[in-house]
Amino acid sequence: MTDEISFDDFMKVDIRAGTIVRTEPFPEARRPAIRIWIDFGPEIGEKKSSARITAHYAPDMLVGKQVIGVVNLPSRQIGPVRSEVLILGLEDANDGIVLLVPDLPVPNGKRMC
């Protein structure tokens, strides 16, 4: 377990829903990954990311899927890709990443509450 944080600290993390609009393989990545473009609605717009989710997902099966991401972290250079959002997921029993997703559709850009 990690150190406790205040509720105010937690509220600084901007976690929102978005819909994947485009994907492509990312063969230049050190570990297998997929390049992903996500629509976070009119307030935030489209952001791109790289995700190591190839154990359970192929690029063509992700378009149209809603995901949850942290949109207010600084962007990171991952090889030739500038990642602008952290897509959230959990490791399964075999260390494959399973995406965190809403179980019902929500408008793009809605903040976690």
Distinctive features:
mainly beta; OB fold (Dihydrolipoamide Acetyltransferase, E2P); 37% strand; single chain; 113 residues
Write up what this structure looks like.
This protein has one domain: OB fold (Dihydrolipoamide Acetyltransferase, E2P) (Beta Barrel), CATH 2.40.50.140. Helices cover 8% and strands 37% of the residues. A hairpin with a 5-residue loop joins strand 8 and strand 9. The chain is globular and about 40 Å long. With 113 residues, it is mainly β.
Topology:
Elements: H1 7-11, E1 15-25, E2 34-39, H2 41-44, E3 46-51, E4 66-70, E5 76-78, E6 81-83, E7 86-87, E8 89-91, E9 97-99
What helical percentage do the residues reach? under 10%
What structural category do the secondary elements indicate? mainly beta
Major beta sheet, strand line-up: 3-2-1-4-7
Cα Rg: 14 Å
Q: How can the largest sheet be summarized?
A: 5 strands, antiparallel
What's the number of helices? 2
* Overall 3D shape: globular
Oligomer classification:
single chain
CATH topology: OB fold (Dihydrolipoamide Acetyltransferase, E2P)
User: Span between N and C termini?
Assistant: 23 Å
Count all strands and give the number: 9
Would you tell me the overall average pLDDT? 95
Beta-strand residue percentage: 35-45%
The CATH homologous superfamily corresponds to: Nucleic acid-binding proteins
The CATH architecture would be: Beta Barrel
What can be said about this structure in brief?
The chain has one domain: OB fold (Dihydrolipoamide Acetyltransferase, E2P). 8% of the residues lie in helices and 37% in strands. The strands form three sheets. Strands 3-2-1-4-7 form a five-stranded antiparallel β-sheet.
